[in-house]
Design a protein that fits this description.
Sc_DH/Rdtase_CS, 14% strand, eight-stranded mixed β-sheet, oxidoreductase, 8 helices, binds NADP nicotinamide-adenine-dinucleotide phosphate, Rossmann fold, NAD(P)-bd_dom_sf, globular, NADP
């Protein structure tokens, strides 16, 4: 059994991943940037609350100290993410996107993952079978987004796919640098959560499947790849 940290696990895919890993007997740190939302979620699941805002250095250092004092970490699931829709649910396309409107997405979806991974690397490297799962998106795939006639081609947003494509590159470079750690990116599929105002066509149970699976791979599992529930995806 492993000790797993899931960022942004107070709801959505992170919460469902935590539920499944707790049910499988793993020790789970449920990451939440809001202490109260996190406390309620952790109590519901029998997980350990870890207050953690991925955009905040002090928050990440405090979380690291708490996990270190409790014994260490085997699996890190970088799940916290934002899509950056407008208040009425619109996706910001190329005509409207600005550098400033892209910044929060890169802060959370890319720099947040680097901040948390960098902080927890020493603990992961002490584990006998360390694993990192980066929750990416099919919209990160250049092959998919340029395949005419597909839903990925039709998605007009700029910031979200760009941030997840950057996350995929971060995944590959970390995987090459740390061959003893299994580090992969996953695409949950279009899932009904607050991220997309519940427009997703899958349930969280379906969406979390690939995250749960990759969080439990052993030392013989793949590394440096991009997967959905059906297998390897094109970059
Ligand atoms: N839903 C989909 O169709 C879909 C498809 C592909 C990939 N994904 C990816 O799946 C992951 C989970 O998304 P979801 O669909 O489950 O969305 P969600 O229900 O909106 O959950 C997102 C989680 O991230 C947390 N979060 C946001 N910013 C954070 C920060 N700075 N620090 C810590 N936590 C933060 C949120 O916390 P608060 O509650 O405090 O806001 C929430 O717990 C994301 O990386 C997303 O890009 C989703």
């Amino acid at each position: 059994m492993t000790t797993t940290l899931i960022t942004g696990a107070n709801k959505g895919l992170g919460f469902e991943t935590a539920r499944r890993l707790v049910a499988a007997g793993h020790t789970v740190y449920l990451g939440s940037r809001d202490a109260e939302r996190g406390r309620r979620a952790a109590e519901q699941l029998g997980a350990r609350l870890l207050v953690l805002d991925v955009t905040d250095d002090a928050s990440v250092s405090a979380a690291l100290k708490a996990v270190e004092a409790d014994g260490g970490l085997d699996v890190l699931v970088n799940n916290a993410g934002i899509e950056g829709r407008t208040p009425d649910g619109g996706v910001v396309g190329a005509a409207e996107v600005t550098a400033e409107s892209m910044r929060p997405l890169f802060e959370t979806n890319v720099l947040g993952v680097v901040r948390v991974t960098h902080a927890f690397l020493p603990l992961l490297r002490r584990s006998a079978a360390p694993v990192v799962v980066n929750v990416s998106s099919g919209l990160a795939s250049l092959a998919r987004v340029t395949a005419e006639g597909t839903p990925s081609y039709a998605y007009p947003g700029v910031a979200y796919p760009a941030s997840k494509a950057a996350l995929n590159m971060v995944t590959v470079q970390y995987a090459k640098a740390f061959p003893d750690i299994r580090i992969n990116a996953v695409e949950p599929g279009y899932t009904a959560t607050d991220l997309n105002m519940r427009t997703g066509t899958q349930t969280v149970e379906q969406g979390a499947e690939i995250i749960v699976r990759m969080a439990q791979i052993g030392p013989d599992g793949p590394t440096g790849g991009f997967f959905d529930v059906e297998g390897r995806l094109p970059w």
